[in-house]
Amino acid sequence: MGETANGPPTERRIVSRRTFLRLGCGILLSGAAASVLAPVYATRIEPRWLEVTRQDILLPDLPEALDGFTIVQLSDFHLGPHVSAEDVRRSVRITNALEADLVVLTGDFVYRSARYSTPCARELTSLQSRYGIYAVLGNHDVWTAPDEVAASLTEAGIVVLRNERQSLEVGGTRLWLLGI
Ligand SMILES: [Fe+2]
Q1: pLDDT tens for residues 58-108?
Q2: How many angstroms does the Cα of residue 164 sit away from the middle of ligand 1?
């Protein structure tokens, strides 16, 4: 999916990430190209490949107030040498254009250094949603500096759930968020 200047993502997708990876795996398995192409993909292509995928979640006993409730999940920024603050800003712009009810951030904000936590959190302060922004830490955050990453996010107004729960009041019903 491409990004438009002032609207939601367009449908100009030529090939999905999944298809690309399937094709790529076939090529890589074919020989020595793996040693050259894999690092190029990992550092130059994949970090900038933003793709919006939509998933309907069907729950038979979902309260009516939550029917059509939209959640945007953003994950694995890995801000660092291969992902810039501008890359995170692009994700934020795309997310805000989706006008989600809720935004959840599922970890890996930094890449191997705590010094990336503040710049990452600074970009994420621009996220908008009706019911707030919630986060959990990822394995890379935990390996690097969990307390510093969590503090940066909290300072940016993001609620970090570390083995915690939080309930949201939505149209007279209650939605529980569990962060592990
Ligand atoms: Fe990750």
Answers
A1: 999 999 999 999 999 999 999 999 999 999 999 999 999 999 999 999 999
A2: 21
* CA 149 to ligand 1 centroid distance, Å: 14
What is the CA(83)–ligand 1 centre distance, in A? 12
- Tell me, in angstroms, the distance from the centre of ligand 1 to residue 109's CA: 8
What angle do helix axes 117-124 and 85-98 make, rounded to 10 degrees?
A: 30
Which backbone phi and psi does 79 adopt, to 5 degrees? -55, 130
Q: Report the alpha-carbon distance of residue 113 to residue 101 in Å, rounded.
A: 32
For residue 49, tell me if it sits in a domain: no
65 alpha carbon – ligand 1 mean position (Å): 33
The 10s digit of each residue's pLDDT in 102-125 is 999 999 999 999 999 999 999 999
CATH number at residue 171: 3.60.21.10
